[in-house]
Structures are given as C-alpha cells and as structure tokens.
Known about the structure:
Layout: E1 2-3, H1 5-21, E2 24-31, H2 50-63, E3 66-77, E4 81-90, H3 107-115, H4 120-125, H5 133-145, H6 153-172, E5 178-181, H7 186-199, E6 203-207, E7 213-217, H8 220-227, H9 236-244, H10 246-256, E8 260-262, H11 266-277, H12 284-294, E9 298-300, H13 301-311, H14 320-328, E10 341-344, H15 350-353, H16 360-381, H17 393-399, E11 406-408, E12 416-418, E13 432-436, H18 444-451, E14 458-463, E15 466-470, H19 476-481, E16 488-492, H20 495-498, H21 500-524
Parallel strand pairs: 1-4, 2-8, 4-10, 8-9
Antiparallel strand pairs: 2-3, 3-4, 5-7, 6-7, 11-12, 13-15, 13-16, 14-15
Amino acid sequence: MEVGAEGFAQRLPRLSRRIRRAAFVALDTEFTGLYSVFPKNNEPSLFDSPVERYLKARQSVQRFTVTQLGLSIFSKENSNKYVVHSYNFFLFPSTLGVKDVEFTLSASSIQFLSHYGFDYNKFLKDGIPYMNEVQEKILRQRLLAGSWKVHSAADRDVLKKAIDEVTCWIAEAEEEDTMILQDLSVCHMLEIQLVLRQALQNVWTEPLGYKKLMVKKVNPQHRELLENSSYDHCQKELIILFARGFTNLFWILVRAKKPLVGHNMLMDLMHLHEKFYKPLPESYEEFKSNIHNLFPVLIDTKTVTKFMQKKYMFPRTSTLSEVYAVLCSSSLNPDDPPWPVIALASDCSRYAEKKSPHEAGYDAFLCGSVLLMSAHLLLCRSTEEAVEADPSFSQYLTVLAEHMNKVNFIRGGVKSINFSGEDAPCCHPPLLVVHVRGWPGLNERQIYQEFKGLCRFDVRRLSKNQFILLSNKYKQLVLRDYKHHPQLQVSVYRHWRHNPRVNCLLQVSGIVALWSLLAFVLGRAPS
C-alpha cells in the first residue's frame, strides 16, 4: 500500500492499532544517496573502527534525505500464521515554518532507484512531511510569535494566487458570504489559512473535503468565537500535528516497543535518529544509547544470516532477495514442523503477485519474512527434541537472543555494532606493506589501481615511501609476484619493523645505546 501526504492522517489511527497488535515490525528505507564524496576520504574503509565509520556516515546522513520508508507489520494469527500489512511511505522534509531544508542528490543513487521504477513525482509532490525535535521547537516559537515563513517559491505562487482571489472577492462580498478555493494540497490548504487569517481580520477559513477550502466573510466578534472553538483547524497543536507528519508514526513505533527488524540497518537507524528524533550527536556512544532507548530490541537479518552461513553451511549470499530465495527453497524448509505461513493482507497483496526489489515496502516484507524463516530454522536446529507445531514468537526471540541489538558492520574492524553494550575490539586481517622505490609522487589512488586486479584492497599511506594494504582476504600471489618487483616490494606488515613511531624509537634507542657504549669505552681508557 502506497501512502502519501494526502491520505496519511486518515490512515494513522489504523496504523497505530496494527502496530500495537504486531509481533514485530520490519523496516527499510531508500535515500537520495548513501555515502557522500565530500569531504575527501569519506568512503567506508576496512581500516575504520566503529567510531570512525559513524563519523563518516553521520556526514552523509546530514547531506542526504529519505525518499521512501517501508514498514511491514507482522501480526501472529492462529495456527502458525503471520499476516503482513506492508506500506510504502513517500517522505519529503517539512517546509511549514521551519528553516528551509537542503539535501543532496547522488547521481548513482537516483539512477539506481529510477532503474527499479521509483516514482519521484510522488516523492516531490505528495511526500509526507516530517521534522525532528529541534525543528519542531523552532516551528512552535515562530507560531507563537507569528513569524513563520513560506520558503518554497512554488508555494509562494500558490499563496499569492489564492490571496489575490480572496482580496478581490471580499471587497464586494457581504457578511456571511462564502467562496471556495479549489485544487489545494494539504500543505497549501494550511498555509493559505494561516496567511489569510493573519492578513485579513474579517475572514474565516475551513477545509471542505478533498483539496477544497471555504473562505467566509465574518465580523470580528464572530471570528473571535470561531477561533476559540474546538473545531478550528488552525489551532497551533493541529498545525504542529500536520507539520510533524510521519514523525507522529515514528513516535507510535517508539512507544510500542516492538522488535524492529532490518537488513544492514545502520544507515536506516542513523536516518531515523536524524530525521525524526534529534540531529545526530558527535558522540558515537551517545548515538548508540539514544537508539537503544528508542528501540530496545533490534534484529539485523544480515547478522543472523552471516551466523547461519558460518555454523550451518548456509549458502553464501550478497543481497536480501538472494537470502529470501535461498530460504524459500525446499531443501532448507524443515519438515516437522514447517516454517510459519506468511500471508500478505488483502489490501497489500501486490507483493504476492510481483517482485518489487528496492521498493522500501517490498524490502521490508522480505526482511521480516527472512527473520521468521531464519528463526524457525535456528529453533529446529537448536535442539534434538521435537519442536512444537506452532512455535510462539517469544520462542523465536529466545534463539535469536545472541544476535539481538547487534547491527551488521560492513567492511570494517568489527563484525557488528552492539547497541546494548560495548563493541568487540577491532580485529583486522593480516596487513601488507608496500615499499616504493624509484617512483616519486605515488599516491593512494595509484596504489589502489595497481593492485585492484588481484584483490580488493583498501590503501592507507604509512610513510613517504610506504603504503599499507588491507583486505578481507589476500592472495599469496600478491606476495609472490611483488617480492622482487623493481619499484613495489610487498611484504607482510610487522609492527616492530614497519611502524614509523616504533622505527623512530628503535633508531633513537640505538643511537643512545651507541653513545652510552662509546662513553663507557672512553671512560675506561687510560688517561
């Protein structure tokens, strides 16, 4: 089910009820970009510690925005069956009264989403507004002071046209006369009401169904009565409620405290924090603590399936859709009992008929399905005793306990980030060191180009003539082929031998020892 700004408020109560009744909620997000190329050297690297990766990703999250958020709500029905309500929410930053929001587009990300049929018109024209706590505070202050602004030039054109129509009409209108403004978006309807009421003391405004706004000429006493009534659609709290948009659903998720499931979900969590809660803090530990308070139970299916690949010879896969396809194969499906029936609700049945990869709602559905099938497989293999025909979701959570709150860390010094405790110490594969001779001005990019045909290395300069190479696994032929290379000599990195500081310390110690020996010898010589 696709949800935009026009129908979001009406669906919110039903969404709230479904989330409260859910066993768990799966989430996926699509962005206008993944990793920013600014500043330089901001790309993820195998050398990264969790803190370094967080600081890099934080800069990217601040530059890019969320285009689409997918939620799949999994509810346990009778007889080992889960019913799924899957939603695509198109999002667009709130422009109502807050500081104008700027965001960046990555050309490769835009092409990627376009290739999979992403509708940018819905994103731009019908995106649900949202704001974080800092932006909400600014809006409240401006509404209180009557100093809010309209930032969009297109919005200003719509407002000017509406104001011109009303001012021309009101000059000739009698008291209690009305006029109707047509074809207004939800956001425009609210902005026009605020502008008209602020500019004209003898008008009253009221929404009239879909895209229509009634404007009525009234006397000041009548207007004062209407403003103090509970039916005023421009009460400050109602304006805030509209401007918060999707943030209202975010807080429903937070209060429900349901397990939140994702796949490689670090960037998803960072965008949730930045866009709907608070700007991302500089402190990595503060970010972890905030997320754990918001969502006490996180399950990353990438972490779970990596464990299954290692322990149960689960086929190696690289994408979520591949994991789903492997799990759906008959060879893995336990016979007794078979894994749960996963049924899409009647109003969300499109995904049962058509694959929609990289559509947020579809990927959220795959993610939740992978969780259920993986948990069932782990439960069946965790005991030699027979598993009951209708396992409860709490039984699944028990076998998933060691993976809870551990979010996959892509190509870095640790396997996962632990949101409920300390991260494991960084542990890198063996390093290689490249010693350069007779090739002045060589840089990291040129070293990368030289070795990329052999293996995927990350490169970091060690000294003027030395570079470190790091890979998840390197081939021995790198050492063999470059052992006697005239310009690039490759060897295994030894800390005591290659670290510049240790080298410097050893040289200084050698000099000190030499002078001490010389002084000793000269001191013993006869005068």
